[in-house]
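Amino acid chain
________________
===
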Amino acid sequence: MSLEQNTHHQIQLLALHGFTGCGLDFAALQTGSIAQWHCPDLPGHLSQTQRKDCSPQATLNYLLEHAQKLNRPRVLLGYSMGARAALQLMAHQLDSWDALILISGNPGLSDPVERTFRQQNDLQMARRIETIGLSNFLTEWQAIPIIQTQKNIPADILEPMQSNRLKHEASGLAMSLLQFGVAACPDLWHLIPTIHCPTLSITGSKDPKYVQIADKMQQLNAQVQVVTVDAVGHTPHLEAIDRCKPIIENFLQKIVTGKSHWSNGSNT
């Protein structure tokens, strides 16, 4: 049977959430999708709080367990922290994925000065979580500029997200920051030119740092298809789910039909 004849749930999609998130954050994107979504909690988060090792290698091993259960065609999707995890998995399974979707993704820090600054910042933040407790930390964290725009996520999506965040444990989030923050993860910019599967990068126009990162990835690899979503920030897939869900589904449909190339630099 051809892919065109059996599109519903034909694609297996592994979706990786961001810091303080969980697999359930993708629930609204799954409804009516042509893909079957697999959305594990990452180490240190929710059901995986008891995983005491959140390091890049431990995270990779954990994801390899999930990946080996998926039939092809399969698509890898990662948001923010999850995009770091997705790129690490891609680096070890370059020929095993049929497409890649990065949402507000950063391949890593190449500047040692910036890496040292982020290490210090993440250490302070991890200590802050343990000192003031989960609820107070989340209040502070959600007030920082890159996260503030999440208040624009529709209430029916945001409320369960907030409820799930409060189910985390401070120790788990602290471990995730220390062991899997961007400064703790390897620099994978060298990977970008080697990715040969269709790749979609989605960012929000109010998140200029990540728009620049997406543009840089496209410069390194013409296979990277860039979409900048107007008037939203770091969480475009949820802040503007009405616009992002069709972008993702159209991309998946093109994977199914083999028409994965479209014009780059799209805005919506």
About this structure: Residues 1-8, 261-265 have pLDDT under 50 and may be disordered. The CA atoms of residues 228 and 267 lie 5 Å apart.
